From TrEMBL:
GO terms for biological process: intraciliary transport. Keywords: Cytoplasm, Repeat, WD repeat. Residues 61-80 are annotated as: Disordered. Gene3D superfamilies: YVTN repeat-like/Quinoprotein amine dehydrogenase. This is WDR34 protein. GO terms for molecular function: dynein heavy chain binding; dynein light chain binding. It comes from Glareola pratincola. The gene is Wdr34.
Length: 546
C-alpha cells in the first residue's frame, strides 16, 4: 500500500486515487430533497372551521288591514209625524205678536231709559283674570355697584307699556352730594332670563339723580332731575350716548336740587313735549326742546312768601324777597291748568298755570316768573313730601262736597295723610299712620278708595333710623287704619318712593334706602273696583264735610 505523508503536520495516511479531469466535470442528476414543515402542521391542527353567517331567520307576512268594515250612521231617523209636529210648533201669529209689542212698547222704553240712567254699575268692569288673595313680592331689583356706594333709590317710574321699570340712585338723607356719581337703571320685567341684579341699562350720571319720569307715550325716553339743579333726558334705545337733551348750568337752571319732573303736552307744537321741574329753590319751571338738544326755559313760576301763611318756612333771596321751597307737585286729571304743590313749610297749595301775578321782580332768569298759588290748605306738622290728585271724578259736581274731581292726598314728616277737597282749607280726613315719616303717597289708578304710602321711622334729624313699610289703605274697609302694611326690607331702611303700574294694574314698585326696588303683585282686593265705589268716595267726602 502506498502512503502519502504530510510533511508539515507529520501525519501519514492512505493515498487516495485522483479522479480524471473529465470525470470531475461530468453532468449528473441528483434526487430531490423534501423538508416537512412542522409549524404548518401544528397550526392546522388547532384551527377550527368558523362562519359569520347567522342562522336562517324565519319570517312571516301579516296584513294590517281588517278583513271586514262597516259604516255606521249617527243621524237618527226622523219620523214624518215628528216633522209635522215641529212645523206646527214654529208657526207664529204675527198679527197677535205685533199687537202685543205695540201695547208694551211705552213700558219697555221707559224701563230701558231708567236702566240707562241708573248708576248701579258705575265703574264696574268684568275681570277675567285669576283672583289673587295675597300680596306677593315678584322681584327684588338692585344694582350692586350703587349699593356698594351706599346709594339710595330716590325715585321709580314705569314706562308707557307697563313692562319696564326704572329707578334713580342718589341720596335723600342730607349732605352735599352734588359731585357724587350716581346711576339710572332699567329692567324689562317681560324679558326672558331677567337678572334682578343686572339691569338692562345702566346710565352713569355725574350728580345724584333725585327724581325721574318716563315719557307718557314714548317708552324709551326718561327725564330726570339732578341734585345740581339740572334736567336731563335720556333715550334708553341709545346705549352709547343716551343723553339727548339737557338744560346745562345757566342762569335759568335751578339753584337747589330738583325733586320732581313731569312731562307736559306742548299746546303750540303737537309733536313736541315740555318738561316741568320742581325745586326747593321755590321755582316751578317749564322747559321747551331746542333743535340743538338744549332745554330752554319757556315759562316759570315761583311760590313766594306773600302767598302762604307767615308760619311757612322761607328761603331768602339776595334782594330781600323770599321764596318757599317746593318739594312735590300733582296736576289735576281733569283741568290741565290746576295743580297742587307741597312745600317745606308744611302747607299744600292750590295753584294755576293761568296765574298772571308777577312773583319776583328780579329773578335773574330769561323769562319773568309768576306767582301761581291761589289757596293754602291746613298745614302738616312738618314738611310736605308728596301730594297726589285723585284720578276719579263725576260728570256733575255737587258744590257742598266738591265732588270727587277736587280731592287730593298729601303726606309729610308728621306721619299723617290728609284727604283734602280743593274747595276748603281744612282736611276732610287726617290719618295718623303711627309715628312714621311719610315720604310718598300715590292714589290707585283703578280703585277710587285705595292709595299707597311709603314710610320710615324717624328718631332724629341727624341720625336717620328707619324701618320702611309700604302701607295700602282702603277707605271701603276702614277710614282710620291701613288695610295692609308690607315690610319692604329687613333692617332700618325707609321706603322713599312708590308707583302704581297704570297698564299692569296689579303691580306696585317701591324703592328704599337700601338701594333695592321691590315689585309687588297686589291682591284682587286692591285692584278690582266695586260697583258703587265712586258713590262711596263721594259719600265719604260729603259725610265728613257735613
Amino acid at each position: 500500500a502506498r502512503f502519502h505523508g504530510n510533511q508539515r503536520s507529520g501525519r501519514w495516511g492512505p493515498v487516495r486515487p485522483r479522479p480524471s479531469l473529465a470525470a470531475m466535470f461530468a453532468d449528473r442528476t441528483a434526487d430531490g430533497a423534501a423538508v416537512e414543515s412542522l409549524w404548518r402542521s401544528a397550526r392546522s391542527a388547532r384551527c377550527e372551521a368558523k362562519s359569520c353567517q347567522t342562522g336562517k331567520i324565519s319570517t312571516a307576512e301579516t296584513a294590517v288591514q281588517s278583513h271586514s268594515s262597516r259604516d255606521a250612521g249617527v243621524q237618527t231617523d226622523q219620523s214624518k209625524d215628528a216633522v209635522q209636529d215641529f212645523q206646527q210648533e214654529v208657526q207664529v201669529d204675527y198679527t197677535s205678536l205685533l199687537s202685543f209689542l205695540q201695547r208694551v212698547e211705552d213700558a219697555v222704553i221707559k224701563e230701558l231709559n231708567k236702566n240707562w240712567k241708573s248708576r248701579a254699575f258705575d265703574g264696574f268692569e268684568v275681570n277675567w283674570t285669576d283672583q289673587n288673595e295675597t300680596v306677593l313680592c315678584l322681584h327684588t331689583l338692585s344694582y350692586p355697584e350703587a349699593q356698594d356706594q351706599n346709594l339710595q333709590v330716590t325715585s321709580v317710574s314705569w314706562n308707557v307699556t307697563g313692562s319696564v321699570v326704572a329707578c334713580s340712585y342718589g341720596r335723600l338723607d342730607g349732605g352735599d352730594w352734588s359731585t357724587e356719581k350716581s346711576y339710572v337703571c332699567t329692567w324689562n320685567l317681560d324679558r326672558r332670563g331677567l337678572n334682578p341684579q343686572r339691569p338692562d341699562l345702566v346710565v352713569d350720571v355725574p350728580s345724584s339723580v333725585m327724581c325721574l319720569a318716563f315719557h307718557p307715550s314714548q317708552p324709551s325716553l326718561i327725564a330726570g332731575g339732578l341734585f345740581s339743579g339740572e334736567l336731563v333726558v335720556w333715550d334708553t334705545s341709545r346705549t352709547e350716548d343716551p343723553v339727548i337733551r339737557r338744560t346745562g348750568m345757566t342762569d335759568d337752571t335751578h339753584t337747589d336740587p330738583v325733586y320732581q319732573v313731569n312731562w307736559l303736552p306742548d299746546a303750540k307744537h303737537r309733536n313736541h313735549d315740555r318738561l316741568l321741574s320742581v325745586s326747593t329753590d321755590g321755582k316751578i319751571l317749564v322747559w321747551r326742546e331746542e333743535r340743538d338738544g338744549r332745554l330752554a326755559l319757556a315759562e316759570g313760576f315761583a311760590v313766594v312768601a306773600q302767598q302762604v301763611p307767615r308760619s311757612a318756612q322761607l328761603k331768602k333771596f339776595g334782594w330781600g324777597e323770599a321764596a318757599v321751597g317746593v318739594t312735590s307737585l300733582s296736576f289735576s286729571h281733569f283741568d290741565p291748568r290746576v295743580f297742587v304743590v307741597g312745600v317745606e313749610g308744611g302747607y299744600s297749595l292750590k295753584c294755576s298755570t293761568a296765574a298772571e301775578t308777577p312773583a319776583l321782580h328780579r329773578t335773574g332768569t330769561s323769562v319773568p316768573l309768576r306767582a301761581p298759588a291761589e289757596l293754602a290748605f291746613s298745614p302738616h306738622g312738618g314738611p310736605v313730601y308728596s301730594v297726589s290728585c285723585s284720578p276719579f271724578h263725576r260728570q256733575v259736581l255737587r258744590v257742598n262736597t266738591g265732588g270727587c274731581t277736587n280731592l287730593f292726598l298729601s303726606c309729610g314728616t308728621d306721619g299723617q295723610v290728609h284727604l283734602h277737597s280743593m274747595l276748603q282749607t281744612q282736611p276732610l280726613l287726617s290719618l295718623q299712620l303711627s309715628k312714621k315719616y311719610l315720604f310718598c303717597v300715590r292714589w290707585s289708578p283703578v280703585r277710587p278708595l285705595v292709595f299707597a304710602a311709603a314710610s320710615g321711622e324717624g328718631n332724629c334729624n341727624k341720625c336717620f333710623c328707619f324701618t320702611g313699610d309700604v302701607h295700602l289703605f282702603d277707605f271701603e274697609k276702614s277710614s282710620q287704619k291701613p288695610a295692609l302694611s308690607i315690610k319692604q326690607a329687613a333692617g332700618e331702611h325707609p321706603v322713599y318712593c312708590v308707583e302704581f303700574n297704570t297698564k299692569q294694574t296689579r303691580l306696585l314698585a317701591a324703592g328704599d334706602a337700601a338701594g333695592a326696588v321691590r315689585v309687588w303683585q297686589l291682591s284682587s282686593d286692591f285692584t278690582e273696583q266695586g260697583p258703587r265705589e265712586m258713590n262711596h268716595l263721594e259719600q265719604l267726602a260729603g259725610e265728613i264735610t257735613d
